[in-house]
Amino acid sequence: MTAARFDVDALALDPETRIVVCCGSGGVGKTTTAAAIALRAAEAGRTVVVLTIDPARRLAQSMGLTELDNVPRPVAGVDTAKGGELHAMMLDMKRTFDEIVSAHSTPDRAEQIFANPFYQSLSSSFAGTQEYMAMEKLGQLRALDQWELIVVDTPPSRSALDFLDAPQRLGRFLDGRMLRLLLAPARAGGRAYFKVVGASFSLFTRVLTRIIGTEVLRDLSAFVGALETMFGGFRERSQKTYELLKTPGTAFVVVAAPEPDALREASYFVDRLSAESMPLAGLVLNRVRTSRAPRLSAERAEVAADTLDEAGEHEVTAAVLRVHAALAHQAARDRRMRDRFSSARPGVPLVEVPALPTDVHDLDGLRRVAGSMSAYGPPPPARTTGKAG
Amino acid sequence: MVTGKGGAGKTTVAAALAVALAAGGRRTLVVEVEGRQGLAQLFDTPPLPYEERRIAAAAGGGEVRALAVDVEEALLEYLEMFYNLRSAGRALRKLGAIDFATTIAPGMRDVLLTGKVKEAVTRTEHGHRVYDAVVVDAPPTGRITRFLNVTAEVAGLARVGPVKSQSEGVMAVLRSPQTAVHVVTLLEEMPVQETVDAVTELRAARLPVGSVIVNMTRLPLLPQPALTRAAAGEVDRAELRAGLAAAGLAPALAAPLAAEAVEHAERWEVEDRNRATVAELGLPTYELPFLSDAVDLGGLYELAEILCESGIGTP
Prior knowledge:
The complex is a heterodimer of chains A (389) and B (315).
Chain A: H1 8-12, E1 19-23, H2 30-43, E2 47-52, H3 57-62, E3 73-74, E4 85-90, H4 93-103, H5 107-115, H6 117-125, H7 129-144, E5 149-153, H8 162-174, H9 177-188, H10 191-212, H11 214-227, H12 233-244, E6 250-256, H13 260-275, E7 280-288, H14 298-311, H15 315-344, E8 350-354, H16 363-372
Parallel strand pairs in A: 1-5, 1-6, 2-4, 2-5, 6-7, 7-8
Antiparallel strand pairs in A: 3-4
Helix pairs in contact in A: 2-16, 4-7, 5-11, 7-8, 7-12, 8-12, 9-10, 9-11, 10-11, 14-15
Chain B: E1 2-4, H1 10-21, E2 27-32, H2 38-43, E3 53-58, E4 62-68, H3 71-83, H4 86-95, H5 97-104, H6 108-122, E5 124-125, E6 128-129, E7 133-137, H7 141-148, H8 150-154, H9 162-175, E8 181-185, H10 189-204, E9 209-217, H11 226-231, H12 237-246, H13 254-279, E10 285-289, H14 297-310
Parallel strand pairs in B: 1-8, 2-4, 2-7, 8-9, 9-10
Antiparallel strand pairs in B: 3-4, 5-6
Helix pairs in contact in B: 1-14, 3-4, 3-6, 6-9, 7-10
């Protein structure tokens, strides 16, 4: 049941890899993994951009992500000796949405849309907007064609699948039946329309009017009317980016922690990728606890500690043995978690990143994380041609 | 209301709190609002329907019921209750209008979800409240203030009319002393930062913050002063070798074990720093221990007992 080892260098340093998408449920270290992969590739000589969604404050600061201007900025402190570069940006979801609106309408109309309460809600809080905008930004970065590699972190939703599903849901929604139904009176005007849609629409407006009032209904119609020119655009765009994810050169890295929930999400995601024929590079298992003295079992350490305590001597040694016992116990649990995943999904290459005593918040920390994902350890090897594996 | 950063154990704590508050023959309801069926997994039952079901027993004849709120169902229920429009609602659902309304209308989802919670809180039977306490496994810290601040959220949607009065009724309950928002955190940098942010936001929105529940805490295994010294990277190797020999173990283990002790102490020091940050919030703080195996039903009761003894949620 030993899975093949996922080697981040074989992926990130391969000139044919153009997009790496890091997916996984919230709180498993996706942002750190994405940043570490990007840094690794940049220091090996590639021109890289990393799109992060919600980085921890100190990590963001260390990457120079203090300004939210929705464009990639060069990261200082990256070793550029091999000719690589690292750019980083943090997604501003509302701004990305605003940019799409501006690009597809006249300034007057855009202003109208921005002022509409429905737009404000949709662009800032609709579950799924963040995923859609992450995909949109990825599409934009790819279209600019300034980078050899784009590494994407995905939004912190509870389900990793949201990243794949939400954009299409929003796309469908924005050019959906209901919006057209609301729009219809504005277009068809008067009686002809009511003959067609008839009862269902009058029922719809009656209920809506009763619950939310005519004023709101007017806002809604105005919103739908203003967005009309962009219908189809949304769906088309999300479809295009979705297709981009299936092209050769894109690879998914699933990120998890040795916890039942995180691994369950990872399994769902792995199955989904295979169903969609999307390329899975491997699983990064973060925060794995490992013992430095693997031969000394938790049980033996406990017994030895008890012996010392009973004799009433070597108090500190007994305590150190208990530290080891706790760690060995944790390590065994993490190993069981990993093995359970690997035996159910034997084809998935896997790499473990050891749990660190402190949070990763600088480039050195990212280098260490990347090093543990690589077969070569810390210094990235020079790589010229060819595709591994 | 139980919130927290993803991964901090918000659902587990919500469930444990519901069990704790049901002790002594009381009845509680634990509500799930994000459709993830986390409660069913925790209590090891089939997926929960949109229906209040008995899910666990508590000490002294107490009872815990669980409910997974479905937004569409909640809207249908609302239409029926206030407008007698159940069948119209069903027809609209077929058209996709219900999905549409709950998706696009700003705050509509939240006002429906919190509205259902308010209904359960205020429901009476024979002149008594049906539930002694209602515990909500609420959205994570990043979204909690928006979720609870329903009147502000629907302000753009409803300046007058039924949604406005409905949201005002919900808000009155949420802002009253009957409500407490508990924030679950871990002693790690990001969860603590998010806790501080959430508490600031909740306070600014005049929502009643209850306590901080620090989950998965560990006690330092090293005695002082060895702990502080280890955190600075110092472990007495000679003493360690002697101790290992006395216990019949290879003295060569001293190096790796010393490294493990240093990491343990470093981790503890980071946790302690984060603990100090939490303390600065000036809120009642409760600590729950780390359970070495994944939380099962037994572990859940263990956590419930600790919460029960802590006196959390008792007036």
